Structures are given as C-alpha cells and as structure tokens.
Backbone:
C-alpha cells in the first residue's frame, strides 16, 4: 500500500491511498470466503465455488466488504504511522474495489490545530457534596419492600403518591399538535413534591383524573425546545388517564427486613440511604461536568477548524430533523422549522467544536489515550445491539471514519473527567 497525507492550514487533512491489484486480490478472497462457505450449488463442494461463480451471485456484497476492509486497513495504518488523530468522521472519495485492478481512494477529515491552546489551569468548578434526598430514600425503601409486594390495578378514585399511571398526553400551540408533545401511551410514577422544587404542570392534571377521564391544562414550552420560535409560549395540554397501578407493600418490620436479606430495619433503611447518596453523587457530578463544559464553551483565543464546526452543525441539524420529522404532517412545515433553527445550530456547533478542541488538545498534552481494547468493547456492545459480529460492524463504519470519531468522543469524555478532578472545588 502507498499513501500520501496532505495537511491543510485549517486542520483539514486529505489522505490518498493506493493498493496494487495483488493486494486487492488478497483482501477480495477474504471478503468472498463467508459467501463461499454458505453457498450451495450443484457441481461444487461447500466452500469450493470459484470466485467467478460467487461474484455472479454476490458481486456487489463482496465488493462492499472488500472496499471497507481495504479502507480500514489503509487509514488505520497511515494514521498510526503519522501519529494523527481525526476529530471528525471522513468524507470518502472513491468507488468500490474490483478484483484484478489496483484500487485508489481518498478520505478527508479534520485534525486538531497545531497552534498552542490556552492553559486550562485557571478553571474552577464548584462541586457540591452529595446529600441523600428523603423522597428518593423513601422510593428506594418502597422498591426494596416491593420485592415482597404486588401491584394492583385501581379503577376508582384519584392517583396518589407513588402510584404508577398510564396516560396519554398531547400538547398543542394554536390548535396544532406540538412536535414531540404527542406522547401516546406513557407510564409515570407519581412522587411527593420535594421542598423548594417546582411541581411539574402535568402533575396536578394527572392527579385530578379518574381512569378513563380526560383533563386539560397548560405548560410553557421549555427553553431547550428544538424550534426556538416556540420557546416560552403556552402549550395547551390534553391528558387522558388510561390506567393506574398501586403498590401493596408489606409493613416495614424486623421480620420483613430479615426476609429481604437485611439484619434489621435500620440496615434496610441504611441501604436505601446509601442508594440515595449514590444517585445524588451522580447528579452532583453531572452538574459539575455541565458547569465545566460551559466554562470551556466561553474560552477565548481558541483556533477551531472550520471542518469540525461544519461537522458539528450538520450533526445538530440531523438530530433535529430526526426528532421533528415524525411529528410534522408536511415536509414544508418541517423545512420552515429547521430553517428557524439553523442560526442557533451554527452557534451550538461553534461551542461544541471549541470544547472538543480544548479537551482533545488537553488530552494530548496530558498523554491521555483510548486503548484499542476499550474501543473494541464499545464496538462489541454496539454490534451486539444490532445483531452483528464486531468485525462486520467495524467494516461498516470504515468508509465514514465513524470508528475514529467514536474514539475521539471517548477520549473527549475521558479528558473531561480528568480535567474535572483537577479544577473542581468543594
């Protein structure tokens, strides 16, 4: 294999790779092997069908498998030799490989700028001590007792604290269903209000209904709703209570605690308190991470490659389209909403790209990395969810360079956690 890596001034890179016909043939045969093993045809033993016969039946699939394998091999080897870490996926240039001829392709991607990044030593983020929430403690106690309890369907009366309700919620603005606010059947557990916490607008509507009844109310469109033109406006809620379940729990006695595997009631309560503290610690950490990200978003004098910003913008718009498209009756209405979101998507993309550059640059400075074994575990988990073997899944991601973007995202998360350890204060 031969390759050439060209680096642009704005962080853009182009990698051109060429394989000889002999190299293509070796990979081609490996790509064809699984098809040969399962192919049955009169006159040929299993696994012995000539390539020409397999190509007539599976030519396109073999070409795609071989191309993905060649791209993965070339890019992985070239980037390892050059010590380059892509911070985006690839733009692929080239077709599919073909048996018997050389294969050439190119990929374009973005890397970290070579410019010196600002120091992050002066950052400071407050991280509060975790505190067990009494309401959450009670929920955990109920969950433990629930191992010996049962849930019963309730048809009379109104929902109470800790009931699990089945409801349908529809939100409208100006008589039109608000995308994302037509839930269909959903289950929720009612909890007592926490001190100082605002009760959700949906809660009193649900608590005022009997099974089969419909009620109405209003709420305010949240500040993080995808379509900025709708934020802050009143949403008309229509709620139908479809069902209600109530827990019948055993009394909290010494005997019951021992049946559940605890020494006594105090030990059971201590376990619930510990779980509440763990949950509180997770919330505290999430808040501290969000605060640190906000600090990084405001950083100045950071060179952000345009290619990275554009990639972040396209990803933000893709997610918005994916979220909103099932809710719109016409493509024109969807286009109008997406057009309103474009400016904000640009701003978010700049902030996201700035954070990635700072964290990956800090990771490079601190010598942080993501081992191949760690990446393989993530790939294996994702492949399993899609009922694919790891190697096939990896090859499927090769053309777009998604494996490298996945690795960059994992390294960004690691850098965020390590940086937080250095800058947090109690």
Residues:
């Amino acid at each position: 294999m031969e390759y050439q890596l060209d680096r642009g001034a704005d962080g853009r890179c182009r990698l051109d790779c060429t394989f000889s016909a002999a190299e293509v043939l070796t990979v081609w045969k490996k790509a064809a092997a699984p098809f040969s093993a399962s192919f049955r045809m009169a006159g040929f033993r299993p696994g012995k069908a000539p390539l020409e016969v397999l190509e007539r039946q599976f030519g396109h699939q073999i070409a795609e498998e071989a191309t993905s394998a060649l791209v993965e091999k070339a890019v992985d080897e070239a980037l390892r030799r050059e010590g380059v870490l892509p911070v985006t996926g690839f733009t692929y240039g080239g077709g599919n490989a073909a048996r018997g001829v050389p294969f050439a392709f190119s990929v374009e991607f973005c890397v970290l700028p070579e410019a010196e990044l600002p120091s992050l030593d002066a950052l400071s983020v407050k991280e509060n001590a975790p505190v067990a929430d009494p309401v959450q403690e009670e929920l955990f106690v109920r969950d433990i007792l629930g191992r010996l309890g049962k849930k019963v369907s309730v048809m009379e009366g109104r929902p109470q604290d800790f009931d699990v309700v089945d409801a349908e919620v529809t939100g409208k603005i100006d008589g039109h269903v608000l995308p994302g606010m037509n839930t269909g059947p959903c289950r929720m557990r009612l909890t007592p209000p926490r001190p100082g916490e605002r009760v959700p607008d949906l809660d009193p509507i649900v608590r005022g209904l009997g099974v089969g009844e419909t009620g109405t109310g209003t709420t305010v469109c949240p500040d993080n709703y995808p379509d900025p033109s709708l934020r802050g406006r009143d949403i008309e809620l229509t709620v139908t209570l479809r069902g209600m379940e109530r827990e019948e729990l055993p009394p909290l006695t010494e005997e019951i605690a021992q049946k559940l595997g605890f020494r006594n009631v105090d030990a059971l309560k201590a376990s619930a308190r510990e779980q509440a503290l763990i949950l509180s610690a997770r919330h505290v950490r999430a808040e501290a991470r969000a605060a640190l990200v906000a600090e990084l978003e405001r950083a100045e004098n950071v060179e952000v490659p345009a290619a990275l910003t554009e990639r972040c913008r396209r990803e933000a718009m893709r997610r918005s389209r994916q979220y909103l498209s099932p809710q719109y009756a016409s493509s024109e209405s969807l286009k109008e909403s997406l057009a309103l979101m474009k400016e904000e998507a640009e701003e978010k993309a700049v902030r996201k790209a700035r954070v990635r550059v700072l964290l990956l640059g800090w990771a490079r400075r601190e010598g942080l990395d993501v081992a191949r074994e760690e990446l393989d575990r993530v790939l294996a988990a994702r492949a399993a969810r899609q009922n694919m073997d790891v190697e096939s899944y990896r090859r499927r991601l090769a053309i777009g360079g998604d494996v490298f973007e996945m690795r960059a995202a994992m390294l960004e998360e690691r850098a965020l956690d390590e940086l937080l350890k250095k800058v947090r204060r109690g």
Summary: The first helix runs from residue 21 to 38.
